Amino acid sequence: MTRNSSNAGKYLNNLYQEFLRWLGRRPAMGGLPQEKPAPGSASSLKPAQPVESKVLLLVFDPFMDSLRRRKLSETMPWHPVSDLLSGFMADITDTSTGLARFKIVERIEVNEFSVKIDGFHYDPDSYLEVLQGAEPHVPAMADYQVILSRYDILQKVEKRLLDEVWLMAFPHAGFYESRMAGRNAFWCNAPALDSTPVSSRRFILMGFSFERGVGEMLEAFGHRCESILTKLHEQRPPAENLYQLFARYDVNFPGRAEVGTIHFAPNSQSDYDWGNPRLVVSRCDDWLRFPNFTGSTRQVSAVDWGGGDIRLHHRWWLNHLPRAPGQTVGIDNNWWSYLVDPDLVGT
Predict the structure, then answer these.
(1) What is the pLDDT of residue 3?
(2) How far apart are CA 344 and CA 197, in angstroms?
(3) Which residues pair with 164 in a beta bridge?
(4) pTM to 2 decimals?
């Protein structure tokens, strides 16, 4: 098997040496362990390969007037579903340079309110009262099992007719931004969905809202990325946990910011602080050269990621995720493959 022959750079090597010193061991020659290429392959690694996910799209757009068949989306000044989907999918294609490919293979419009875990569902009058300020129903969570059963999702995933589900809905529908199901499912910005081991494959259900914009869709996807990358790297020792390195921001690591997280840009001082003009030193540009780090730094501020615009920041963050050929410390240098297919993450 062809493996990464690239030098991870002096910066990662220094981290590894520090880790070994912390353990009280003699630093190894050469620093961070690099996986060697197969004979004759050092000059040409196989390019990172695209990964495609087949998507079931469920659009929850209930009728608000049964006589005139007028839907919720037609009564509220919210975003057209088609515009949200095209914008989101274009951003994912762009920031992954085509390595992440989502294909909607089935679209179903559900002209009713989602069922809550206690069996309750809104009707047009009770829902409009909530929009006008009444307290939402508690429990707020939708019953995922009803959806899985009604649309034969577990069976379709098992047969590889589907790879994931997008739930496009209205405010208070009760869906998590992302949630993982299937055998050996793990936390994905929400608890793993119980009672789904009949599917031997892990799969994700994304929760989007047509009240919000593409930026919020990218945020939901970004939290999915954070959960998967945390799981992917959790068994690595500190010096080899590249995602923990990637996610550093200045508040937690003064003078040593990297790319940050979805909520925290390199210079953020609080959640969602993407418009902060404060200059900090960051190594974020080095991640565009992954795994060939140089250790170069520069001062960055909100100007670099859109001046506070949610969509522009999230595009900037996603664009810095590694997407190179080969492997480093046993993990593919194309992180996008794991983000599209969580089954590739070891248990």
Answers:
(1) 35
(2) 17
(3) 55, 204
(4) 0.88
